[in-house]
Design goal:
With 367 residues, the chain is an alpha/beta fold. Helices cover 38% and strands 16% of the residues. The strands form three sheets. It has a seven-stranded mixed β-sheet with strand order 2-8-7-6-5-3-4, with helices on both faces. It has a four-stranded antiparallel β-sheet with strand order 9-10-13-12, covered by helices on one side. A two-stranded parallel ribbon has the order 1-11. α2 packs antiparallel against α9. The chain is globular, with a radius of gyration of 20 Å. The N terminus is likely disordered.
Length: 367
């Protein structure tokens, strides 16, 4: 049993390292973690909120065709991508900053805020592992508990802001809970919170919803920064491409923290992002498949007495408080990669929504 467990831990090492759950050196990386073809021994990865359907065919074609351009710097492609992003988000070109995934944007904003010293305010739990670096650079983290129904408590977040607050972080929809802030409430919150501090809104999962971005606020407000990514609905997590939307003066300050602004992303990834933006059918199909499979999974989990939070994303947050079996053991023996317990009270965990057959295997493993 110990050998089997060791093998399973090796298989999940990349997933858990990506989540920041364990030190990188804890496990050796297996050579077969990314096999050329899936087999019965390939783990079902339901840990990192990846898009199981992507990249789109258009993105794959663009990536292949762009390989021959990889001996040149991608200035022209970067400019084309910035143009497309400006049009999509109804902002100007100088409101966009391209990055190697949205995590680079979170890091940049954390560094920028840390230069001023003070504290950052964040919901708990939320997507917070990037804040470790900000803390090391001098920011003190103030955690604000969620509401009873696992939503970000905007009034409590606002009341937690002090004269020393330099950064307020809102993940909308929130990771790991999948809950979303009501748009008008969020806009009012930003209006108040941004008077004395930067408000960073992470919209990594907003494409799975019908809610509009709050990106229009950056045109008039220098203290609002929106982080966006191609990792989720576009299926380009491994390509590492994202971007920031902010006031032009704020973008300029963030650019100063980069050695080469808009230069961190490869030609191949940039080509994939451009093609993805033009492929609206893929996005719509992904969103529809995700919603259908999400509804199925929630219904099946609740049949097993596992209470779920309504999700606005490609993952589900659920309580294991009334589940009688060893949840993580059931995943282990069925070669499924999950996450962890995020809140001890209620034993709340999270699972990514994969393809229908993957979720059927997930449910079967728990029965």
């Amino acid at each position: 049993m110990e050998n089997n467990r060791r093998d399973w831990l090796k298989k999940i090492s990349v997933g858990v390292v990506g989540l920041g759950l364990v030190p990188f050196e804890t496990f050796a990386l297996p050579t077969d973690h990314f096999p050329e073809k899936e087999s019965k021994d390939t783990p079902v990865r339901l840990s990192s909120n990846e898009n199981p359907y992507g990249p789109s065919k258009a993105a794959k074609t663009a990536m292949i065709e762009s390989i021959t351009l990889s001996n040149r710097y991608g200035w022209e492609l970067s400019s084309e991508l910035v143009n497309l992003l400006g049009v999509k988000n109804k902002v100007n070109l100088n409101n966009i900053l391209i990055s190697a995934g949205s995590t680079e944007i979170l890091d940049l904003v954390g560094q920028f805020a840390a230069l001023q010293k003070g504290n950052l305010v964040i919901a708990d739990p939320s997507y917070g592992y990037w804040t470790d670096t900000a803390e090391k650079l001098g920011l003190t983290k103030i955690k604000v508990p969620l509401t009873v129904d696992k939503k970000i408590d905007l009034p409590k977040m606002l009341s937690s802001i002090t004269a020393d607050t330099k950064l307020v972080y809102i993940c909308n929809p929130n990771n790991p809970t999948g809950t979303i802030c009501e748009r008008n409430d969020l806009i009012q919150f930003i209006s108040q919170a941004s008077k004395n501090s930067i408000v960073l809104v992470d919209e990594a999962y907003i494409d799975f919803t019908d809610q509009e971005s709050v990106s229009h606020l950056v045109l008039e407000n220098k203290n609002v920064i929106i982080a966006k990514t191609f990792s989720k609905v576009y299926g380009l997590a491994g390509a590492r491409i994202g971007y920031a939307i902010a006031n032009s003066s704020t973008i300029e300050k963030l650019r100063e923290l980069q050695t080469w602004a808009n230069g961190a992303v490869s030609v191949v990834s940039t080509a994939a992002a451009i093609a993805s933006l033009k492929d609206e059918n893929f996005v719509n199909e992904t969103k529809a498949l995700n919603q259908k499979t999400r509804d199925y999974t929630i219904a099946e989990l609740e049949k097993l007495n596992i209470s779920c939070i309504h999700s606005n994303s490609n993952f589900i947050y659920f309580s294991l408080n009334n589940y009688k079996k060893d949840f993580f053991h059931q995943l282990e023996v069925n070669n499924i990669i999950g996450t962890k317990i995020y809140e001890e009270e209620g034993k709340w965990s999270r699972i990514t929504i994969g393809k229908k057959e993957e979720m059927q295997k997930f449910i079967a493993s728990l029965q």
